[in-house]
Amino acid sequence: MDISHTEENYLKAIFKISERDGKPASTNAISTEMNTSAASVTDMVKRLSDKALIHYERYRGVTLTELGEETATHLIRKHRLWEVFLVDKLHFSWDEVHEIAEQLEHIKSAGLVERLDEYLGFPKFDPHGDPIPDADGNFVIRKQVLLSELKREEQGVVVGVQDHTTAFLQYLDRMELVLGTPVKLLEYFDYDESMRVLINGEREQVLSKKVCQNLFVQKQ
Amino acid sequence: MDISHTEENYLKAIFKISERDGKPASTNAISTEMNTSAASVTDMVKRLSDKALIHYERYRGVTLTELGEETATHLIRKHRLWEVFLVDKLHFSWDEVHEIAEQLEHIKSAGLVERLDEYLGFPKFDPHGDPIPDADGNFVIRKQVLLSELKREEQGVVVGVQDHTTAFLQYLDRMELVLGTPVKLLEYFDYDESMRVLINGEREQVLSKKVCQNLFVQKQ
DNA sequence: ATACATTTTTAGACTAACTTAAAAAAATAT
DNA sequence: ATATTTTTTTAAGTTAGTCTAAAAATGTAT
Ligand SMILES: [Mn+2]
Ligand SMILES: [Mn+2]
Ligand SMILES: [Mn+2]
Ligand SMILES: [Mn+2]
């Protein structure tokens, strides 16, 4: 009993939603995430339940079973390792790799992921700063906060993004706010919740509320 | 109008059959190659024809249009480049890569193939000695003959295989008849059409008719 | 407690890709 | 030239995944 491309994408969506919301994934949440109708979700959810990949009770939302969670985690592992490959080896930029990895994550092969992992030097984070689960599905948890949560004069280093859109990633490239860049909060403006920050110890810049709420930093 | 995974595999099959047989691919030939029923082929062939990928006339077999041939060639390019990646970079052996490349060839991305090609150093042949078409679909044609076509005392170097099965590839590994190995025909036995050859200038070995008819060499 | 709004499910229908069985066309043999 | 065999197509049906529209269940507000 193997799992289709489509089923795999649903599992990942359910994993993502449950993690974000801390509760069972609703039909509507899944349909939004997957860009399908609610009716399609109900349909798929029955099939995933038959395959023991999720727990499903009518009108009550769904949660992943252990098998479902393993599958989802393994997919995330593959997705993020392929992203590292595309950026580190093929020199794609971080805003170009998601769509390709979305396809590559579905490649089925016994040894491929492990060999890829070794080839890449067992990276712990992907190009967007997201942790790469190990072969057993364990994530490294990093102590990180949103840039918007920094206090005046606090320092941090950019370690990840919450928003993965091309628009945001390209904006960050433009601002030279790539992963690893040190930032220090100089001033907070109550008016529009924007912040004046010192980037890389050398350049001052005002960043909007939206930007600050989508950038993860590790306090120094 | 984009082409599905399945349609792509049919195009490759049609390309392969036409090349091998030098005539339009019959419904039965395609169904054998694709492991589907003849009825499924008729069905698919209509769709491919609607998409202007093949020329199809009932009961007359099919040939690729220019668009169809371009698509097939591009797929072969991707398949073989991925095989090189798997062997050269991830250290898979040549009998393990076909199935994985069969999936990887369907990844859709604007720049991926070209970057992969560059990353691999623009290889001209895949791990089985098959030529890799360039971005315009042009193959390098190599002057090669079957080992069985060598005359007594003639020398050659192993450059490819006709049979791509795991069984044959592993047999060749066992015999140390990998690509690049020099072979010299010492003796031909009429009785069973087997041959005694000198491998790598140092070891004599009798090879069966079947082996000799599936191994390509370049005369020296 | 009832009415209204929202969410979810069901019903019915579509497409791509597949199947088997029967019919039709083409190829081969007598 | 006719009969037989082989190949191909058509017909009818299945499954995965999708949709819209309607019905049912759940949640919220007065
Ligand atoms: Mn995906
Ligand atoms: Mn990522
Ligand atoms: Mn394929
Ligand atoms: Mn090959």
Structure description:
Two copies of one chain form a homodimer. By secondary structure, the first copy, chain A, is an alpha+beta fold. Helix content of chain A is 41%, strand content 18%. The first copy, chain A, has eight helices and eight strands. Chain A has helices spanning 5-21, 27-34, 38-50, 66-89, 98-104, 112-119, 166-174, 209-212; strands spanning 54-56, 62-64, 145-146, 155-161, 182-189, 194-199, 203-207, 215-219. Chain A has a six-stranded antiparallel β-sheet with strand order 3-8-4-5-6-7. The first copy, chain A, has a two-stranded antiparallel sheet with strand order 1-2. In chain A, helix 4 (66-89) crosses helix 5. Chain A is globular, with a radius of gyration of 19 Å. The mean pLDDT of chain A is 97. Chain A binds chain B through residues 86, 89-92, 96, 99-100, 103-104, 106-109, 111-112, 115-116, 119, and chain B through 86, 89-92, 96, 99-100, 103-104, 106-109, 111-112, 115-116, 119. The structure holds manganese (II) ion (MN) (4 copies). One manganese (II) ion binds next to loops of chain B. The structure holds a DNA duplex (30 and 30 nucleotides).
How would a textbook summarize the main sheet of chain A?
6 strands, antiparallel
* Terminal CA distance of chain A: 49 Å
- As residue ranges, the low-confidence spans of chain A are none
As laid out across the biggest beta sheet of chain A, the strand order is: 3-8-4-5-6-7
